[in-house]
Amino acid sequence: MWQKKIEKIEAVLFDMDGLLLDTESMSQRASRRAAACFGYELDQAFSLGLIGRNGKDAKKRFQEIIAPDFPYSEYEKAFYQHYDREVKEKGIPVMKGVSEVFEILHEINIPSAIATSTHRAKALEKLKATGLLAKVEQVVAGDQVEQGKPFPDIYLKAAENLGVKPEKCLVLEDSHPGVRAGHASGAVVVMVPDLLPPTEEVSKLADGIISSLLDLIPSLKKLKQCRTNEM
What we know:
It is a single chain. This protein is an alpha/beta fold and 231 residues long. Helix content is 50%, strand content 10%. The chain is built from eleven helices and six strands. A six-stranded parallel β-sheet has the order 3-2-1-4-5-6, with helices on both faces. Helix 6 (98-107) packs parallel to helix 11. It is globular and about 60 Å long.
């Protein structure tokens, strides 16, 4: 049971978009609008397939599936223009359960890091705007690792930066590539699906699947109780 595994963790590694921040729908809209600027129409399956991937991997998918000469650099600029416009109009919503999870982690001195496929500069902007940057010890971004999710590099680096062995970490993810990356790192992985429901393969890789971060609270409270009893 994944609940028992959580009793042994020494750090928590969070994905960001779709897990802490309710931003994946915004990214989907920005992606379709940006591609349309260059005469391309993205279908839903392709757009959803971008979730959890860093810029380098996204560029590769565009050029392999959409067009070999797809103007990715120009598309990326247009993407951020559309995305930033919506953020300015609506703000960045935080997922339910986020504040409660961080509160308990701080109470029991469990360090945490964010491991996001987003470019570091953009990730820091979002985290500062939502007040989450001050709640974590480390931020590792997609442009700081050689291989993005589904490879384990980003989670291995986040664990290393915290000084905790990967197998002693809890990875929280919403995406399929993220679950694969967390599993490959050796961490305990709990999936909190957002736009993508878990496939049979992903369900087998994840140690647990919950509907929101609020479902994690009972296990963290038990971890808190265990730590208190050890003192």
